[in-house]
Amino acid sequence: MSKQEEASLEKQEQNIGKVEDVVKKSELVLEKEMSIDGSREITITSLKYNPSNPNSKPEFVDYKLRETPGMTLYIALTKIKATLDNDLSSDFVCRAGICGACGMLVNGRPQLACKTLTSDFENGKIELLPLPTFKLIKDLSVDTGSWMKNMSMRVNSWIVANEDKKVDISKIEEPIEPKVAQEVFELDRCIECGICVASCSTAIMREDFIGAVGLNRVARFQIDPHDTRTDEDFYELIGDDDGIFGCMSLLACEDHCPKNLSLQSKIAYMRRKMVKV
Question: Which of 13, 80, 178, 200 fits a 20 to 30 Å CA distance from 186?
Fold first, then answer.
């Protein structure tokens, strides 16, 4: 073996040694992060701000805690409030993705905390912010209820029927086709979490825009045969830039909807109907 070959082999061995050192250091770091039961330490950074307190100023606070198997942000925030900061505000009711109360920005994306696993974040760093477009109550809590109430009143979110179609509980309810009933039920799966509104560029720019949730609601009553309103009636409710013509079709509402509703297809359906009026 020539001296040149020996030098090359020696250099390769040195490089291998360096790689092994890096691997060992990485393993040591990983061991520090992992506890005896195999969990890791995660960092949740949350906005803290109380707009009703004149002395309160917006700030970010870091919370470090051990991750447990199957931990969701709901569990993590509950643990934080129980052991680290009982002043932190966030909203939860069902923790099953049904009530829609726990919507928040998770690393910039609107999501339900109860359906978001902390294990989905490889680096263990999670930043939480309240949903935009809604009135901030405190920290991560926002007032979606008032917004949804105003939207419901704006679009007349109830069955409107003529005298001959008014409900008479002494008679059997008028049947409808199963296919139509399924379409109505599909739109009724909306949980009014506000995530579609928070992810909508138009809603952020236009305070009075009713959002995908409002347009979805109108579509639900438009296809319901129990409702006797005409397309002209619905046009009076949503036929402007704060309604059906304000949507820019960027698809963010559908991309983030936790119930996977086909929001854009229904918005397109209503737009076609309203253009013909």
Answer: 200
